[in-house]
Write a structure and sequence with these properties.
This protein is mostly helical and 330 residues long. It contains 12 helices and 2 strands; from the N terminus they run H-H-H-E-E-H-H-H-H-H-H-H-H-H. The protein has helices at 3-12, 22-52, 54-60, 82-113, 116-129, 134-161, 177-201, 205-213, 218-247, 250-255, 273-280, 287-329, and strands spanning 70-71, 78-79. A two-stranded antiparallel sheet has the order 1-2. Helix 4 runs antiparallel to helix 9 (218-247) and helix 5 (116-129) crosses helix 7 (177-201). The radius of gyration is 24 Å and the shape is globular. The two termini are 20 Å apart.
Length: 330
């Protein structure tokens, strides 16, 4: 075992010796209590959601996830999450697809291209966008974005790309899946760009300077040095943005329009798991309807957990591959 291994092992286990200092013990107890509290809190949330959806779980089973139905009429109640799962996935995916290139461009501009006098104010503006309440973004979507998309963008896209099912007949109202996608893209943009900016700032300067000294252009340096070095973190940032998009409720409820159906036309209306819960839970008239709405929350919770597990797996795989590559070069 090398000296570095011994040092790292002693750092991870500071209380294995005979002498234990009071301050170290207090630190360990407080940190352990904080970690335990978070674990217990997550467990309580999961238990409460499962308990609240128990009636719907026993009534519909797993078929609820794929059934396309939402009929709250007493005596003819029938509920299903299929259309809401589809709406959640399609809005989140397209929002991430739209926001990621913009976020990476912003991060690259702030780290590699922007003059020093511009970096600080632009960085502050981008990060301030994350602090804007979602209800205000939704209100802006209703008053400004929705009418602009309906009048100018949607007809233009339909005229040029109408042969693709995604760009079908524009909706007569301003509310649509497309409007929700744009709103979600705006909301996750600061998250992905801020994380990516920190990752790009963490790239060792000697690697970039060495690439430039070998005669590469700035773009070749970014493509060959910056992106490979930060790709694990970029993947994690994208997954975090995806989770943020899947869980957004208020802004999406304001601009998506609503509807219990599945269609590929993003100019039509729809619903997501979060928006349906936000719009309908307070007005639930029966125990079965309330349990079905909580069942939607359980599905959303599972999707969020899957997204976070996928993010951790991607980061570890990329880090392991990156470490092997560096070791091979060394």
């Amino acid at each position: 075992m090398s000296a570095a291994d011994v040092s790292a092992d002693s750092t991870r286990r500071p209380f294995t010796g005979r002498r234990v200092r009071f301050g170290d013990l207090v630190l360990q107890l407080l940190a352990g209590a904080a970690a335990l509290a978070v674990t217990v809190l997550v467990g309580l949330i999961v238990w409460k959601v499962i308990d609240g959806s128990r009636l719907s779980l026993s009534h519909y089973g797993l078929g609820f996830v794929t059934r396309i139905a939402w009929n709250p009429v007493i005596g003819h109640e029938l509920y299903g999450a299929g259309s809401f799962v589809f709406g959640t996935l399609i809005t989140s995916f397209f929002a991430l697809l739209l926001a990621t290139p913009l976020a990476l461009g912003i991060a690259l501009f702030l780290t590699e291209l922007a003059p020093r006098a511009v970096r600080a104010p632009v960085t502050a503006l981008v990060e301030t966008l994350a602090a804007v309440p979602s209800v205000l973004i939704g209100l802006w979507g209703i008053l400004v974005l929705g009418p602009a998309l309906r009048t100018h963008i949607e007809p233009w896209l339909h005229s040029g790309l109408g042969w693709i099912p995604l760009f079908g007949t524009p909706s007569a109202a301003g509310a649509s899946i497309f409007t929700a996608v744009i709103v979600l893209a705006i909301m996750i943009l600061p998250i992905v760009s801020s994380i990516s900016r920190e990752l790009f700032l963490g790239v060792p300067g000697e690697l970039k300077e060495g690439a430039l000294a070998l005669g590469t252009t700035r773009w070749e340096m970014v493509r060959g040095v910056v992106f490979p070095y930060a790709r694990g973190g970029i993947a994690a940032a994208m997954i975090l943005g995806l989770g943020r998009a899947m869980g957004e409720a208020i802004a999406v409820t304001q601009v998506i329009g609503g509807g219990v159906f599945i269609h590929w036309n993003i100019f039509g209306t729809g619903d997501t798991l979060a928006s349906k819960i936000a719009a309908s839970y307070q007005g639930a008239s029966t125990n079965l309807q309330a349990a079905s709405l909580i069942y939607l929350g359980l599905i959303l919770l599972v999707l969020s957990l899957v997204a976070n597990i996928a993010a951790q797996w991607i980061v570890r795989q990329v880090a392991r591959k990156h470490g092997v590559t560096r070791g091979g070069h060394a």
